[in-house]
Design a protein that fits this description.
The chain is an alpha+beta fold and 365 residues long. The chain has helices at residues 26-33, 62-67, 69-72, 74-87, 100-113, 127-137, 145-148, 155-166, 181-218, 222-231, 319-335, and strands spanning 10-14, 17-21, 48-51, 54-61, 116-118, 121-123, 177-180, 233-236, 239-243, 250-255, 259-262, 268-271, 275-279, 287-288, 304-305. The protein starts with 9 loop residues before the first strand and ends in a 30-residue tail after the last helix.
């Protein structure tokens, strides 16, 4: 394993800080004489210490060095973390990806986009109404998902926590005084291992708590929710989602249906249906899933980001953020084009000052 401190010099430790020896230099010597009383054998000035005629300069906080090791030397950090994890392996048998993002989509985002109409107000579906609607739209076979799905088995995590408790996570700063580079590296390795053990314990405890809360939240609706999770996709009344990869990430979309836009001369263009989507991972920007063309899309291709002037996408997944981004993209396609200002990458008509790269003549009614 590579050393974190690549040096063979001796250091000084004082009150949790690492001091480096100052090399002889006349300018440094003159500055030192103005800050340290030579009549005293040793004096701490805050940044300079003199011991046995040698001067040491204050540099790093040792606790901060350990805490930021991942940024300073990521390869070393990863090696040490891999060594710790080998002592506490978590054996999972796979199973259906299932997590909070799916629950958020079904119970918070979906009700916003498929509101029910009653009288003059549009009301959201409640939890049981959403589940009933899914059951009506999807043929769900009877199955004991709880026993077959490893998401609900907390024993591997609990076992790993017990193994972590057996490891030494004690963090003690080195004693004040001189310390060799070898001794410093050995201390850093032990301190880094203690930190990683603490981090992994915190991470696993949080994962167990999250799963316990999720299990408690869905225990009465397992058949429906786990079927949706296993299938990885669902669409109801033009709103839907499809899993991306093997985890708990999705593309959440809303269908536009056919719509018309007008050019500068008042001519109408009929645009086909498309799915405006937002991923549950960064960047949270609206895209069009299908191969599609529009003045706010750069080319005639699939998976393109929608041009939104001045829009700052949020950084974290939440129901509110996903709804905001999805509506921004949806409204931009259907209502954002201004034939007079001609904002976007293209215009519907063909002004001479623009180089035409995407044609819309086939959409003209």
């Amino acid at each position: 394993m590579r050393r974190l401190i690549e040096s063979d010099i001796d250091f000084l430790v004082e009150s949790g800080f690492l001091y480096l020896p100052l090399l002889f230099d006349p300018a440094i010597e003159r500055e030192i004489q103005g800050t340290i009383d030579p009549s005293k054998p040793s004096e701490t000035t805050g940044y300079l210490i003199e011991i046995d005629g040698k001067h040491f300069a204050k540099t790093l906080n040792l606790s901060s060095l350990v805490a930021n090791c991942e940024k300073i030397n990521k390869s070393l950090y990863d090696q040490k973390r891999s060594t710790v994890l080998q002592k506490v392996p978590i054996k999972l048998d796979g199973g259906t990806p299932f997590g909070w993002k799916l629950i958020t989509i079904i119970f918070e985002i979906m009700p916003y986009f498929i509101k029910k109409n009653r009288g003059f107000k549009r009301k959201k579906f409640g939890r049981q109404e959403i589940l009933k609607l899914i059951a009506e739209k999807v043929d769900i076979p009877l199955k004991n998902y709880e026993r077959s799905n490893t998401f609900f088995d907390l024993r591997p995590f609990q076992g790993a926590l017990k193994e972590l408790d057996k490891l030494d996570a004690t963090f003690v700063l080195p004693q004040d005084g001189m310390i060799s580079s070898l001794e410093l590296n050995n201390w850093l390795y032990k301190a880094l291992e203690a930190q990683i053990i603490t981090e992994e314990r915190t991470r696993l405890e949080a994962e167990v708590l999250k799963r316990e809360q999720l299990i408690d939240a869905v225990k009465e609706d397992l058949d429906i929710l786990l079927y949706v999770a296993e299938k990885g996709s669902l669409e109801i009344n033009g709103f839907g989602f499809v899993r991306v990869g093997k985890g708990d990430d999705y593309l959440i979309y809303k269908r536009s249906g056919e719509y018309t836009l007008k050019d500068y001369y008042g001519r109408s263009y009929l645009f086909p249906d498309c799915r405006v989507a937002v991923p549950t991972f960064n960047p949270l920007k609206p895209v069009v899933i299908e191969k599609y063309k529009h003045p706010f899309l750069y080319a005639h291709d699939s998976g393109q980001e929608i041009c939104l002037t001045g829009f700052q996408p949020p950084q974290e997944f939440s129901a509110r953020n996903i709804i905001q981004v999805l509506e921004e993209g949806f409204n931009a396609l259907l209502h954002g084009y201004d034939a007079r200002r001609r904002r976007g990458y293209h215009s519907l008509d063909d002004p001479r000052q623009y180089v035409k790269t995407v044609e819309f003549d086939d959409y003209r009614i």
